[in-house]
Amino acid sequence: MKKNILIIPGDGIGQEVTTWGKQVLETVAQAYGHEFSFDEAIMGHTAIEATGNPLPDETLEKAKASDAILFGAIGHAKYDNDPSAKVRPEQGLLKIRKELGLYANLRPILLFDELLDASSLKPEVLRGTDILFFRELTGDVYFGEKNRNEDNTFASDLMNYHRYEVERITRKAYDAARTRNKRLCSVDKANVLETSRLWREVVQEIAKEYPDVETEHMFIDNAAMQLVKNPKKFDVVLTANLFGDILTDEASQIAGSMGMLASASIGDGTGFFEPIHGSAHDIAGQNKANPLASILSVALMLDIAFGLQDEAKAVTNAVAETLKAGWRTGDIANAETAADKILGTNEMGAKVLS
Amino acid sequence: MKKNILIIPGDGIGQEVTTWGKQVLETVAQAYGHEFSFDEAIMGHTAIEATGNPLPDETLEKAKASDAILFGAIGHAKYDNDPSAKVRPEQGLLKIRKELGLYANLRPILLFDELLDASSLKPEVLRGTDILFFRELTGDVYFGEKNRNEDNTFASDLMNYHRYEVERITRKAYDAARTRNKRLCSVDKANVLETSRLWREVVQEIAKEYPDVETEHMFIDNAAMQLVKNPKKFDVVLTANLFGDILTDEASQIAGSMGMLASASIGDGTGFFEPIHGSAHDIAGQNKANPLASILSVALMLDIAFGLQDEAKAVTNAVAETLKAGWRTGDIANAETAADKILGTNEMGAKVLS
Ligand SMILES: CC(C)[C@H](C(=O)O)[C@@H](O)C(=O)O
Ligand SMILES: CC(C)[C@H](C(=O)O)[C@@H](O)C(=O)O
């Protein structure tokens, strides 16, 4: 199989972790006789520094022309502490999601038995958890009109959804539920928000097409609670952009660390694969970042973008075996981990490769 | 001290739990020589059934005339599953918050040592946690303009904040931080939302007036994660209406159960005291609900509305001692709780009273 893969390292630890994602792709290509060619492009703070634009045209063109994109991370504290900054790294990520029509963000909460202890949740609460989040990614309050009045006494963001936006991701989520445990939980705030009431109506309608899947509707506040209380009860979780952002980060604690979670953004064209962790500038360039989420993003790419299930499984297994052998990065180590089992980014990447 | 207290049981388990809140108030009045007089009013589903209006004028008038309000719970599944319902129980709660100017919702996460085991989080993660949430309560996407187009293909809610709305709750939160561990974490999504950028600007400005308090800004996705990962790191958490709704429910798992958490809504006039749990129709009328959140709401009322610190402490201590003696309702029992220590609503209420 011949594929063009675009690597966008982005900001902070993005560079370090995508390096390992790329090496894993190269190893897979060799082992299974594929031809993966690579290109690289800039985005985020890195791109603002170089060009003034968080998503340069050249990056967008390369993205559209590629078969899949491996992304690192985005963001920089400089902008976070300056609420008045007009140009921001995150605009690059939001724009590429919109331009590529990446409306469905899949975030599997994959639990490695070896990491049960790394979580702050009790092992007996965690064991057996297997959740697949479908987060809508190109609508909601993220993309609605923003306003600030002249004298800075008022600001607003429009939260909004079109019916077709809810329909298309709902179908994708139900299709996935069918191949899993046949339970779908749609999360909204329909007791308060009109947007959520439209969301719930659409899900109720489409649910009728999937009588074999058990549907539940849950308010976001309750879902945020149930995820801690009893994560096992969830199978597929379907939700809007903002609620999905919050719930999936919360759920990262189920997997022990954000450093373990990968995501796939899919939609109309080229798929986009990224860890859910951020740019973590505090540890950038120190060989401390956990490369496993980037490597697991590669597994999602192989599976979802290229349909290479065996190759995807091989990558996931390599991660599982590395963990089984006791190797940890700092974020997933616990008090009992022997110091000589704690690895840097590069050593961990190399372990998985071998 | 002479006080008029309005009881609004609301829906579901609201009736059962406020009954015990009221009895605790009566006992306190007797023991400390106060004169508390009580009135009752309807709201929510109960009020819709009786009058067609989730907040009848009579209830609002009584509320305004009272010195403090003890509220139960609101909501009914009937409306949740009918996204097109025009009249909804929750409108009553939102309207009374707005009409009474209850812009600051205080939710203390009070951890009873005896309940460390009832949580899904590990005891070592929990121990020492003591968080006070300040949730803004009369602004945000809760009260912004709602729209639905004619052919039901589009819906929107306006998320918005005025500067003065952010200022007044921020000052209250800083004042509280001063009397506690002098750390304030403001939670927003300033990398995406204009509303959050205004929020952050205002908090940054007011922070200068409180140089003795350490200020941190955190994105909501990160906060949802940190709350599970390391709840101890928080002291005062300040946030907007929607984010506060989500975070405080999530945080209820730190306290072992929603059945343990009380809240105080304060602002321009009469204070409003309520458990954070909902109407829980599935267990309503079965003598199963945990009355402790309602009883702890009474402690908040005594403290915040009436300035009766000793009386408030007596109530909190009575709850702590009941737990220490091993008594539990179903929601806070764990596998090791002896069956004969598990009480119904009324038995638990009576234990606390005695
Ligand atoms: C960086 C930020 C804009 C982004 C989001 O909120 O979508 C991130 O948190 C994510 O979840 O991918
Ligand atoms: C019932 C509902 C409208 C309410 C809210 O979202 O504010 C509740 O969840 C709460 O937290 O008090």
UniProtKB/TrEMBL annotation, chains A, B:
Pathway: Amino-acid biosynthesis; L-leucine biosynthesis; L-leucine from 3-methyl-2-oxobutanoate: step 3/4
Positions that bind substrate: R97, R107, R135, D221
GO cellular component labels: cytosol
Reaction catalysis annotation: (2R,3S)-3-isopropylmalate + NAD(+) = 4-methyl-2-oxopentanoate + CO2 + NADH
GO biological process, any: L-leucine biosynthetic process
Subcellular location: Cytoplasm
Keyword Electron transport: no
Main localization of the protein described in the UniProt heading: cytoplasm
Site (Important for catalysis): Y142, K189
EC number, as in UniProt: 1.1.1.85
Function: Catalyzes the oxidation of 3-carboxy-2-hydroxy-4-methylpentanoate (3-isopropylmalate) to 3-carboxy-4-methyl-2-oxopentanoate. The product decarboxylates to 4-methyl-2 oxopentanoate.
Name this polypeptide is given: 3-isopropylmalate dehydrogenase
Organism of this sequence: Sphingobacterium deserti
Gene: leuB
